[in-house]
Specification:
Elements: E1 3-4, H1 14-27, E2 33-39, H2 41-44, E3 53-59, H3 67-76, E4 87-90, E5 95-99, E6 105-112, E7 125-129, H4 133-142, H5 144-147, H6 151-170, H7 174-195, H8 201-208, H9 211-218, H10 226-242, H11 244-247, H12 256-272
Parallel strand pairs: 3-6
Antiparallel strand pairs: 1-7, 2-3, 2-7, 4-5, 5-6
Amino acid sequence: MLQRIPFEALPGTPQHRAVLEAIMRHYADDLRVRAIILFGSLSAGNWHPRSDLDLDIVVEDRIVINPVQELQALCRSLSDLGGDGALIIPGGDEEGDVVLTSLMEFSVRYHPLATTSPNIVDQMLLLAGRIDLETVRTAGLANRVASQTSATILISQCIRWVIEIEAAIERNRLWLAIELLHYIRANFMEIFTQARQGVRPLRFFEIEAPESLHVLLGKTLPSLNHAAIFKALVAVIGILHDDLEKLGDSSLTLTSDQRRILAQLRVRMENAHLGD
């Protein structure tokens, strides 16, 4: 049987605790499971009554789990808590999301220890397990550097998307332009998070970024018209050209090749009178 924390130590609302308790009971005697870990706002202590549950279940090596079938079985054991008729949304080969009929949501990833995500290690709560939290943390940290894309590559991606946005505006593909602006904001948040050794960029940026950066990135949020999208594009180019150190640190600048390509784009935009 998995060693577990007492019910009284579970975080969240009574509904959160009831679902966590039921999940621990479901896996209590499961020899495939090495650890059940909670991460996110509930483990960090800054949860909201509407917070969903983020769970990481470490399984034995060489165990292959079909997440949809596994979550279907789990939901059957949650029938008293809204498991009957729950929505199960697969998220790849290892994970899935669940929406109970009570409207409680939770996500579960099933994986061997060696593939622990570095994004969970700073805010884990071990609910139950045969291994300790430090073992899981060590495995996750080993994947941190390997899983990160360098800031230089993230900036190059942004410059490519800027060029595609400029073309999308000219071709009247406004929804594509808006989607690409979203990708760029995600990269900016990733750069900010990496520079501060954080994880989960969206959440980290929400909490840690100063108001001035929220305002700066807010300028890249357009409405569905040419003028607004062009204005957002100009804001992105301004960040890339003048404000990268605000996202990263004073050493983060454009490479000479990045600067040259961005300059060529600005000339083309001026010649095309794209913002007129």
